[in-house]
Amino acid sequence: MSTTRLLSPLHNYGKFQSTASLTRQKSAVGGVGSRSVLIKQNIRRMATYKPTLTIENLNPCIKVMEYAVRGPLVTRAGEIEKELEKGASKPFKEVIKANIGDCHAMGQVPITFIRQVLALVGYPKLLDDPHFPEDAKERARTILKGCRGSSLGSYTDSPGIEVIRRHVAQYIENRDGIPSDWQNIVISGGASDAIKNVLKLFICRVNGKKPGVMIPIPQYPLYSATLSEFDIDQVGYYLDESKNWGLSLQELERSINEAKKQCNVRAIVVINPGNPTGQVLTKENIQEIVKFAQKEKLFILADEVYQHNIYDPNSQFHSFKKVMYEMGEPYRSMELASFMSCSKGYMGECGLRGGYAEVVNMDPAVKAQYFKAISAMLCSTTFGQSTLDVIVNPPKPGEPSYEQFEKDKASVLESLKLRAKMVADTFNSIEGFSCNPVQGAMYAFPQFKLPPKAIEAAKKKGQAPDAFYAFDLLESTGICIVPGSGFGQQPGTHHFRTTILPQPDKLKSMLDKFAEFHTQFLKKYS
Amino acid sequence: MSTTRLLSPLHNYGKFQSTASLTRQKSAVGGVGSRSVLIKQNIRRMATYKPTLTIENLNPCIKVMEYAVRGPLVTRAGEIEKELEKGASKPFKEVIKANIGDCHAMGQVPITFIRQVLALVGYPKLLDDPHFPEDAKERARTILKGCRGSSLGSYTDSPGIEVIRRHVAQYIENRDGIPSDWQNIVISGGASDAIKNVLKLFICRVNGKKPGVMIPIPQYPLYSATLSEFDIDQVGYYLDESKNWGLSLQELERSINEAKKQCNVRAIVVINPGNPTGQVLTKENIQEIVKFAQKEKLFILADEVYQHNIYDPNSQFHSFKKVMYEMGEPYRSMELASFMSCSKGYMGECGLRGGYAEVVNMDPAVKAQYFKAISAMLCSTTFGQSTLDVIVNPPKPGEPSYEQFEKDKASVLESLKLRAKMVADTFNSIEGFSCNPVQGAMYAFPQFKLPPKAIEAAKKKGQAPDAFYAFDLLESTGICIVPGSGFGQQPGTHHFRTTILPQPDKLKSMLDKFAEFHTQFLKKYS
Predict the structure, then answer these.
(1) Which of B203, B350, B377 sits opposite A192 (nearest CB)?
(2) Which of A499, B253, B272, B511: CA 20 to 30 A from B505?
């Protein structure tokens, strides 16, 4: 309990279940004709048949699990969109979903070369079409050759198609300048899938004590949700907002020492570049973390899905693997899982579900069990795997698609860099706001002050103050953000996460609306 | 324990971990140069650094989990393939993977219309290409309109793209002639994913007792693997081989009464058409099961992924939903989850990972929690969703692709029908074999007698007798099947599962080789 306490309680943030049932009732009550028949039928059904799976005997770990990025605020945003479609009058014309790192949904255009390869592997007849460039065809032929029966419709080996795993290892070698073994690569349906499959390994009580995993606060809620589901203790360590969301050794020590009374701390998660916080860790900071993990015998999970998203000219991405390797023994031999995704970077192919884990120095007996566990899910999607292949093996100088690819990539990253600055600058210009620079990733996580009257009003509504603020923002402006309480924050502080993904014009108008809303909000509760 | 006892112990079947490490050692020892350096490095590493995640503190549920379809036999088959590539001399030229329902890997050709739609949604520039038929373009435009930012690269709602969920509901309505609510449809990355997400809900101790779920024996090992992982008791009920693998009420009663002493039996899984057993349940048999489930207050999980694969002219697919509905109250109001997949049927698109669950009469509060739980994994792959869309909304009469599509589909199913008969007939002609007719699905599960000397030899090797037989078959002929002990069988009986998927010529030669092997085997151990 002392460890979960570190996470701001999410239970007051909004009640998913009751919101959902409320909506259902409302729409039923509002209806006529066949709907009222439905209600009667439902009432009759309820009277004659009691369900066997009820909220009382449902998996308790699922009940406590929260996933704010898709929580009640997002549900409400979806409802508002439908109301707008039906012609409802609102003070805005559209909902801006700044709650989720969903690049293409916000107008980013897919990289042509990726989609050409996907069309070719999916429908190989196109290999005869002269409109497709030769390098795309070469990629497609290589992937198809790696598939049984030369079809994307075949199951692959559970850790993925061998040639793609080899390309991933080569990509990592090129990135870090140190060896990578393709047999350590496990391709997955997005990074989330890979992360869950590694976290699952730690579910084990030793001497009656639960396992615990250290996660940053604020964190990406996949971690808190997964740890809840697996009944693993969340051991939160606070990122230092005053030091640009860096990790302090002192805080790591405080966190683990407090947690050790309750659980066996087995692993540490680090998100770099940070989500929701946007920081890029320095090499020195990573070295400190590695030393700490070594001293405490922790398995390191490095969430490095934003490795392409670095905007600050003074920042650089350092992989945990490289830093560990360069530190020499014993650090070089430590266990590490590093995660990467097709959903972020310059490609933003979220819906295709591609990603990988590189698992370093895992005990061979454990690795065999890990591979066995993923085999029951057969394999990850071949289109996701193919997308990953292009990302780790993009067009090379001299190949026909090279220039266009590099141009497309640079254009996305350059625009994100401008937007990162625009967002942080705007928030810093609003009264009561402070926002660290967005050095990397796709989010800003500003802190803001709320007047006591607003906090009181939130309390009355049974909501966390920042959730109260976010709901008001959504209803007034159509802007959908995620309250800081969904990620965790220092008690008494208020934050939210917004993506930097709306296209520049829309982002500008969103930020203008935001500033105006905030002025009105302060007036209302002053 | 009394419930798991019903499953033949899988532990003797083969030791995944030790086989794997053995292989690793062998290949290391066999190597020279850089490999011996590697060994030295590994030894040094082992001496200086002890891993923190070990087999001792690994998730115990993963350790006991088994997944025979991808077990040690398949690992060995993969090794043999590599040995053949390197020119090893064997009594055969290729490995025939009859272990897994992997249609395209065995030479089945993708349905053109499906792949045309996938090429169009993946690379929408092709919408201008006059070579693509208009109905494929219409499907692609509808899917793209359902995606945020009109891109497959966007996240979808967690239960899937609305328009595809609506098409699935329409497909079910057309199939059953009774209403289906699109909001009960949850699209998933293959049926396995959907099944795990529903089974997960039952993890809950009540009055200190573990939950239990009834599964058929023999069963598809996804169920045993998932229940192991979730620490849910497996409550096995035997299918009646003498009654064409039907379900007997008496056996269901025996099974649940025995299990009730140990656990709370919460749900029953029925696989229809059967895997690995190939039976198609009669309507009367389904009615009996429904009545049993109602009496015992069980949630029904109907694995109906082979609903298109019916070969016996006297058999017909009856969905659990339709049968329940037609039985009237209280059966009509019972909770049911039915599963479907893009991997089977006539399409066999295993690698694309598409499927769905239709969840009927679920308590609204539970459903809200279920939807919340899947939201943490964001969404299933958009290419898998698009594949599903084509399957539930195929070309209609009058549309340009209609005739070709129907021809492609009929040709696959007709050929499978012939092969189903060929396989059962051949096994029935071999001494000591008996095989029920393959009425549906993609597998035969023949029973065969083993001479006492062979059973003794297996014992000496620490293997289950049918695994011993299967390894010998693999090494002698290259044919890879799955021993019956991987699915469960009556104690003292021996079975294996083979797919009917090799193309007709190859299947004929495989069966010939099989018969020859068996004769030699009997001679060897007589």
Answers:
(1) B377
(2) B272
**Where in chain A is CATH 3.90.1150.10?**
60-107+411-525
What digits encode the pLDDT tens for the residues B274-319? 999 999 999 999 999 999 999 999 999 999 999 999 999 999 999 9
pLDDT at A347: 97
- The answer to whether A54 contacts B155, with C-beta atoms less than 8 Å apart, is no
Cβ of A225 under 8 Å from any chain B Cβ?
yes
What is the 8-class DSSP label of residue B406? H
User: Does residue A152 belong to the interface with chain B, where contact is any CB pair within 8 Å?
Assistant: yes
B228 Cβ contact partners less than 8 Å away, ≥ 6 residues apart: B61, B64, B65, B66, B234
Residue A49, chain B, CB below 8 Å: the answer is: yes
Lowest model confidence (mean pLDDT) among A8-22, A148-162, B35-49:
A8-22
Determine the residue among A25, A59, A336 to mutate to test chain B binding: the one whose Cβ has the most chain B Cβ atoms within 10 Å: A59
Q: What angle do CA A232, B71, B460 make, to 5 degrees?
A: 115
243-302 of A, contacting B, C-beta below 8 A: 266-267, 297-299
Q: Which of B105, B192, B379 sits opposite A149 (nearest CB)?
A: B105
**Interface test mutation site (partner B, options A381, A388, A390, max chain B beta carbons within 10 A):** A381
What amino acid is encoded at B417 in this protein?
A: K
Confidence class for position B69, pLDDT limits 50, 70, 90 = low
Residues A181, A165: Cα–Cα separation, whole Å: 9
Report chain B residues whose CB lies below 8 A from the CB of A106.
149
Residue A39 pLDDT > 50: no
Can you say whether the dihedral through the CA atoms of A18, A95, A271, B42 is positive or negative? positive
Q: Where in chain B is the domain with CATH 3.40.640.10?
A: 112-117+154-392
Please give the Cα distance from A265 to A293 (Å, whole number): 10
> Which pLDDT does position B49 carry in this prediction?
73
Q: What is the ipTM of this complex?
A: 0.89
Angle at CA of residue A507, ends A85 and B146, nearest 5°: 35
* pLDDT tens string A108-164: 999 999 999 999 999 999 999 999 999 999 999 999 999 999 999 999 999 999 999
How big, in percent rounded to 5, are the helix, strand and coil portions of chain A?
A: 50, 15, 35
Q: Specify the CATH superfamily of domain A60-107+411-525.
A: Aspartate Aminotransferase, domain 1 (3.90.1150.10)
Enumerate the H helices of A302-359 as residue ranges: 320-326
A150 to chain B nearest CA, in Å? 8
Question: Between B57, B122, B201, which is nearest A119 by CB?
Answer: B122
Per the CB < 8 Å rule, is A202 touching B59?
A: yes
Q: Which letter does DSSP use for residue B177 in this model?
A: S
- Give A 305-344 residues with CB within 8 A of chain B: 329-330, 333-335
**Ranges assigned E (strand) in A456-524:** 479-480, 482-483, 496-499
Interchain contact A94–B (C-beta under 8 A): no
Using CA atoms, how far apart are residues A503 and B427, in angstroms rounded to an integer?
64
Average pLDDT over all residues of chain A: 89
Indicate the residue of B189, B298, B383 with minimum beta-carbon distance to A52.
Answer: B298
The token pair that represents B51 in the structure block: 């891993």
pLDDT at B37 over 70: no
Do A369 and B62 touch, CB atoms closer than 8 A?
Answer: yes
CATH among 3.40.640.10, 3.40.1080.10, 3.60.20.10, 3.30.300.30 for A112-117+154-392: 3.40.640.10
Across the interface, whether the CB atoms of B17 and A365 are under 8 A apart is answered: yes
